[in-house]
Automatic annotation (TrEMBL), chain A:
Similarity comment: family membership: Belongs to the class-III pyridoxal-phosphate-dependent aminotransferase family.
Organism, as annotated: Accipiter nisus (Eurasian sparrowhawk)
Cellular component GO terms held in the UniProt record: mitochondrion
Coiled-coil residues: none
Name this protein carries in UniProt: 5-phosphohydroxy-L-lysine phospho-lyase
InterPro entries, A to Z: Aminotrans_3, Aminotrans_3_PPA_site, PyrdxlP-dep_Trfase, PyrdxlP-dep_Trfase_major, PyrdxlP-dep_Trfase_small
MF terms in GO: pyridoxal phosphate binding; transaminase activity
TrEMBL record, chain B:
Chain positions covered by the region annotation Disordered: 443-474
Keyword annotations of the record: Lyase, Mitochondrion, Pyridoxal phosphate
Reactions mediated catalytically: phosphoethanolamine + H2O = acetaldehyde + NH4(+) + phosphate
Organismal lineage: Eukaryota, Metazoa, Chordata, Craniata, Vertebrata
Locations listed in the record: Mitochondrion
Designated name of the protein: Ethanolamine-phosphate phospho-lyase
Top-level taxonomic group: Eukaryota
Subunit structure: Homotetramer.
Family: Belongs to the class-III pyridoxal-phosphate-dependent aminotransferase family.
């Protein structure tokens, strides 16, 4: 709403496999959802995910940043040819449902350049990843570089430690354009004193307990352990992440990087039997996603990886079809984004 | 109470960090509220205000039973509904027990807007239809999809803001609408309008997914639809393959007194297909719910696509919801709403006889509207007068708001613990202020008996009447009455001052 009011344009560019929410207007901009429901609207444009492991341009590409950003540039040009105008580029700072993707640094800056030139603005969706999770920064978009500032940031989930709160932060300019219609924006529960007290308490704890530094420390350790596993187990195709936002991409073969969907599903089930709760995501439902509470510690990290090691060693992936049951197949629908 | 910032500082920080589209009440002299209890709010100076606005604090601000339930659960667990938990199922069970049997399936969300958006998704998924019929002056929420069906909002955005899949039916307002109290059958007449809309839409190859209406329009001006309207509309909408969505976000949970849900005022033979609820459900905690039939729920699930709501149905929200239901029951708040509401209506009806500014009094339970007019015949909305009255009431420590498309309708929807004394106090204050205003503009106040005498009259004739009787006025003892009179021993200060907007 803010973007459209500010730019007076309508169209939105999103990434493939994006998920921004369950409201009608957000299903419209969430390929993860609309591909299975209403289909793509004409004012929605889908850009390739800047996934350097599984995407169009991979780790061996000389400049994947420019290549991926040019995809967005092309989309804008195509839209303009059809007389359409871009209101916003809308992206999760670290696509989660898309498979724990870490966009290469510099991508956002280049995209922002193209989008702003077309009169649009950049919306960074930090709902899944904000509040210090990535360790070295408070916000995941900051991983892109100090020279990058989005026009609008949305935040949610962790903000109130489970209490229903969310927030949109933007510039004075955009806020004033929105106010200029004269129409009030009222949200019954938004900004109530209890939610704000909770929000403040969460910020206090993040600071007092040094959760950001902790996320870096434990996250790095976890990544290190997982990378050792990658060397040991061919089923692990990629380990990627920052702080306590980590993905382990499971594959059936190294050459094609075919998602090991059933094996991932099976591993999750076995982990639950070992009292470890983990979930999977990605279009191939094959990426183990770590995003635990920020007090997760070194022992926890070691424990999880040791268990995964044990289970992978014990033939998950090799004989997965033997242990695969109908029940597990039907429960697959449930283990999607959270 | 230790405040971090002075009121001026608070205001300055708000201007800096909160979107300017977010307004404050009484913009010329905002209130900083730091504490509230029951039906009272306290400002930064410790001044106490009677709250006639906050239906959200349904069982009363800071109700100990609700707080206790919330804290207890927060200490135990607050997580998402992908894990099993008793609070969720217990609450769903208790909530659906208040509804007609076929409304048995719940989707828990966190705001009225989310609930109404989901209601639209359910309705559209059902037969794959797109179009929605909404009422004039309706307000269903602030998310994009709901602005589309809220004329109260999209009309402010310009005359071409109505989308082609949205059809606007006349509001069934028998005081100010197309068919009024003198019409032989307004329910049918208004329903006929919906029928016409459906026929027109179908001629253009359009298909109706839903008719959505607030069971009683609030922003639209405390409009109570005539009985039978919903049934007839539902008939037409169902025939066209659409569903009936009753938006109870503002008015549910016993506010109307005689029923738990406002749609039940239409008659026992009326059952909507989808009901949305919000605001009062958690006494201020962000929660909301959509309830529908098994059939509609299964159709929604048939796509195979999961519906997940991060915070919806979490154990803390459900514990709070249960606590609210318990208080409503234990404190007989529905009974109170009927008794106090009826009394309030009686008092206001007297004011209508007395004051030419009062065009209409309407309401049920603790949902009451006072329609202020400049001209009784033409029913010209008295917008400036309403605004002035609101500000004066605030000076007298009474919080009331005005709404309706012309902002001329005083709307009462206080916490459900509102008492007879509160009702009397508000009306006496309004009486005095209206007299003041009418004198200032030269309008004639009928029955210019001094209010002291009037009050005495009540105490002598009003003997104790059983509180259970629906239509009776509750007894007001003389002491309370005389106490309230202290308010207008003051001479009116307006005299020749013109009423300014």
């Amino acid at each position: 709403r803010l973007a459209r009011q500010y730019t007076k344009h309508e169209d939105v560019i999103v990434l493939d496999h994006a998920y921004h929410g369950h409201l009608t207007s957000l299903i419209d901009i969430s390929p993860y959802k609309f591909r299975n429901l209403e289909g793509q609207k004409e004012w929605v444009h889908v850009a390739p995910v800047p996934d350097t492991y599984r995407g169009l341009y991979r780790e061996d590409h000389e400049d994947s940043v420019t290549a991926y950003a040019n995809e967005v540039k092309n989309i804008i040009e195509q839209a303009h040819k059809r007389g359409r105008k871009i209101a916003a580029f809308f992206v999760e700072s670290l696509p989660s449902v898309g498979g724990q993707i870490i966009p290469p640094a510099g991508y956002f800056q280049k995209v922002a350049e193209h989008v702003r030139k077309a009169g649009g603005i950049f919306i960074a969706d930090e709902i899944q990843v904000g509040f210090g999770r990535v360790g070295k920064h408070f916000w995941a978009f900051q991983l892109q570089g100090e020279d990058f500032v989005p026009d609008i940031v949305t935040m949610g989930k962790p903000i109130g430690n489970g209490h229903p709160i969310a927030c949109v932060a933007t510039t004075e300019e955009i806020a004033e354009a929105f106010a200029s219609t004269g129409v009030e924006y009222f949200n019954t529960f938004g900004g109530n004193p209890v939610s704000c007290a909770i929000g403040l308490a969460v910020l206090d704890v993040i600071e007092k307990e040094h959760l950001q530094a902790h996320a870096t420390e434990v996250g790095n350790f976890l990544m290190q352990l997982l990378k050792e596993q990658k060397i040991k187990h061919p089923i692990i195709g990629d380990v990627r992440g920052s702080g306590l936002f980590i993905g382990v991409d499971l594959i059936k073969d190294q050459a094609q990087r075919t998602p090991a969907t059933e094996a991932a599903e099976h591993l999750i089930t076995r982990l639950k039997e070992e009292y470890i709760l983990l979930s999977t995501d990605g279009p191939g439902r094959n990426v183990l996603k770590f995003k635990p509470p920020m007090c997760f510690n070194m022992e926890d990290a070691k424990f999880v990886v040791d268990t995964i090691d044990k289970l992978l060693t014990g033939n998950i992936g090799q004989n997965s079809s033997c242990e695969w049951s109908e029940d597990q197949a039907s429960s697959e629908m449930l283990l999607t984004s959270s | 109470m230790e405040e971090r910032y002075s009121k001026a500082e608070t205001l300055a920080l708000r201007r800096k960090h909160i979107g300017p589209s977010c307004k404050v009440f009484f913009a010329k002299d905002p209130l900083k509220i730091v504490r509230a209890q029951g039906q009272y709010m306290f400002d930064d100076k410790g001044e106490k205000y009677l709250d006639c606005i906050n239906n959200v604090a349904h069982v009363g601000h800071s109700h100990p039973h609700v707080i206790k339930a919330a804290t207890k659960q927060m200490e135990l667990l607050n997580t998402n509904s992908r894990f099993l938990h008793d609070n969720l199922v217990q609450y769903a069970q208790r909530l659906t027990a208040t509804l007609p049997e076929k409304l048995s399936v719940c989707y828990f969300v966190n705001s009225g807007s989310e609930a109404n958006d989901l209601a639209l998704r359910l309705a559209r998924q059902y037969h794959g239809h797109q179009d929605v019929i909404t009422l004039e002056n309706a307000y269903h929420g602030h998310v994009t999809s709901l602005i589309d069906i809220s004329p109260y909002k999209f009309n402010q955005l310009g005359k071409d803001s109505k989308k082609e899949f949205v059809h606007v039916a006349p509001s069934p307002d028998i005081y100010r609408g197309k068919y009024r109290e003198d019409h032989p059958d307004p329910a049918s007449a208004y329903a006929e309008e919906v029928k016409k809309i459906i026929e027109e839409a179908q001629k253009n190859g359009r298909k109706i997914a839903a008719f959505i209406a607030e069971s009683m329009q609030s922003c639209g001006g405390q409009v109570i639809p005539p009985v039978g309207y919903f049934q007839k509309v539902a008939e037409y909408v169902h025939a066209a393959g659409g569903l009936f969505i009753a938006d109870e976000v503002q008015v549910g949970f016993g506010r109307v007194g005689k029923h738990f849900w406002a749609f039940q005022l239409q008659g026992e033979d009326f059952v909507p297909d989808i009901v949305t609820m919000g605001k009062p459900i958690g006494n201020g905690h962000p929660m909301s719910c959509v309830v529908t039939t098994r059939e509609i729920a299964e159709s929604f699930g048939a796509s195979g696509m999961e519906y997940f709501n991060t915070f919806g149905g979490n154990p803390v929200s459900c514990a709070i919801g249960l606590a609210v239901l318990e208080v409503i029951e234990k404190e007989d708040l529905q009974g109170n709403a009927t008794r106090v509401g009826n009394y309030l209506l009686e008092l206001l009806a007297e004011q209508k006889e007395k004051h030419p500014l009062v065009g209409d009094i309407r309401g049920v339970g603790l949902f009451v509207g006072v329609d202020l007019v400049k001209d009784q015949q033409k029913r010209t909305p008295a917008t400036a007068e309403a605004l002035h009255l609101i500000y004066k009431l605030k000076e007298h420590h009474i919080l009331l708001s005005a709404d309706g498309p012309h902002r001329n309708i005083l709307k009462f929807k206080p916490p459900m613990c509102f008492t007879m004394e509160d009702a009397k106090h508000v009306v006496e204050t309004i009486d005095a202020l209206l007299t003041e205003m009418e004198e200032a503009t030269g309008m004639k106040t009928e029955n210019n008996v001094s209010t002291n005498a009037q009050c005495k009259r009540k105490t002598t004739e009003g003997s104790s009447q059983p509180e259970g009787a629906n239509e009776s006025i509750g007894h007001m003892n003389g002491a309370a009455c005389r106490q309230e009179n202290g308010l207008y021993s003051k001479k009116p200060s307006l005299s020749s001052k013109r009423i300014r907007t």
